[in-house]
Amino acid sequence: MFGFSWKRLGIVAGLSLSLVAAGCGQDDTEETTDNADNNGDNQTENTANIGEAIEYTITGIEPGAGITQATDDALAEYENLAGWEQENSSTAAMLTELGDAIDNEEPIVIAGWSPHYKFAKWDLKYLEDPKEVYGGVEELTTLARKGLQEDMPEAYTILDRFKWEPEDMESVMLAAQDMDFEQAAQQWVDENQETVAEWTDGVESVDGQAIELVLTPWDTERASTNVVKLVLEEKGYDVTMTPVDPSVTFQAVATGDGDATVAAWLPQTHGAFYEEHEGDFDDLGANLVGAKIGLVVPSYMEIDSIEDLEPAE
Q: The ABC-type glycine betaine transport system substrate-binding domain covers which part of the protein (predicted)?
């Protein structure tokens, strides 16, 4: 990225202005007024410098993700984002760029979502979205293929009961930074036996019946799907996890090629895919409430809203 700290430059510039004003012998009233004007000018200059420093680019993730489409919509909806672009690559690449920027206290704007371990690892904030392009609070929803309740009533019951909190998911994701996701999920299951017992109460065991769970290849879904996989395996199921693009997740459950997913982000992120296949699957309701998507920046950046960003020159 860039070999300078825009925040430090702003601090140095502000200190220099204060020293000059003191040397000229201004009275308190003049100094207060001038400093207020300078602060306003500095804020405008800082927001302009943000766009210039990051080449008017939002760091995105995979092209097929719902948040990617939402960010494209934001670029079209917000007039002040004229000339900005979204750079799509992968979640891993986005996190690498975010970490590098934070290490150097440099500006960056990412397409972000929560739950995600990045919010526990770094001090981040969402930019306000006054036009509500990204929607409000999201829910992660469980979907099952038609006929699953009759074919696998025990699995259907567990899937229907599966509910947990954002903090639960983030704890698995954090643990998965030092171990694989299955180990992290097993650790959570071992430490939350009371919750697991609520999902499996009265459920009979089966003898190796095969079930396929489809998921989007995001850490959030790796966390939840691995937990459900382990719980189903405790009841004797032979579980396969198949990571696919978001659109294929819905298609697979709708056509019966996959048995279920706990990875549907609604109503905004995967809303278009849900509408395309609505009625072709069973909606078992939210398994996690409090998810969110939007533009995210490090908390040291002196902006609070998408509208604080300046258009490209």
A: 50-191, 211-310
